[in-house]
Amino acid sequence: MQRTRKVVITCAVTGSIHTPTMSDHLPITADQITTAAVEAAEAGASVIHLHARDPRDGRPSGDPALFMDFLPRIKQQTNAVLNITTGHGPGISVDERLLAAKAARPELASLNMGSFNAGVMPVRPDTQWKHEWEKPYLEAFRGGIAANSYETIERILTEIGLEHGTRFEYECYDIGHLYALAYFAERGLAKPPFFIQCIFGLMGGAGADPENLTYMVNTANKLFGDDYYLSVFAAGRHQMRFVTLGAIMGGSVRVGLEDSLYIGRGELATSNAQQVGKVRSILEALSFDIAGPDDVREMLSLKGAHQTGF
């Protein structure tokens, strides 16, 4: 692992799992996503991870036109590295998942390194939903798989990475995903330095236990040596304490309303910037320096914002 005193804070501002009923503070429209991203950057996030939503009802969407409603505006207002998803949610085909990244040609994109049973159950039967799509959308996770086959991973590495110069945040939900990355690295399709995002606490992936983080880090060290940077995030109530542990172990951190809707026990976060500010204060209290966007570009050998498609 590359160790640095400068910790990268990534903020994932909306995601594709939480629905509007869960929080009134979840960004939905292009204006809301733009404001959330800019405020998070001002609070200390140097990487902004972005999904799009249908502004009419908050439904997750891979429509590149929706991404283009906010990407140029965020770029104009901040120097942060903009990281585009290649994921999305149930019912969105691989072709649809790649449309936004192909159009945007971002410096950085997310890439899940394997398939798993991503669970967000249970859904409370007495929930009063704002929109009809929310309940069946969430229940679809029970019968579906967050699918990223080797074929799909190779396609993304080629069509987004090699063809457009985009580098990746490699999202690893379990040990096998690290070995998948090592396989593609050996083939030369994934190139160092690797930005490995280890994810914990999501049903179907590694649990949010310190022993699992240690195991993931030890395995990554064995497979990649000094050719990678570690980042960590954990879902829901595990968020802050787990990312703090990740930083102490030499990694960077990710927060945001995609990963947790809360700022404390039973208290909804009012913004993404609130979470960024909290984790930044924790890191600075532990004598860590916070990486700026240009630090990230140097660390990860990114192509620069001037070479994106927005």
TrEMBL record:
It comes from the Bacteria. Keywords: Metal-binding, Transferase, Zinc. The keyword Lyase does not apply. InterPro entries: Aldolase_TIM (IPR013785), BKACE (IPR008567). The keyword Zinc applies. Its cofactor is Zn(2+). It holds the Pfam family BKACE. This is 3-keto-5-aminohexanoate cleavage protein. It comes from Sphingomonas canadensis. The lineage of its organism: Bacteria, Pseudomonadati, Pseudomonadota, Alphaproteobacteria, Sphingomonadales.
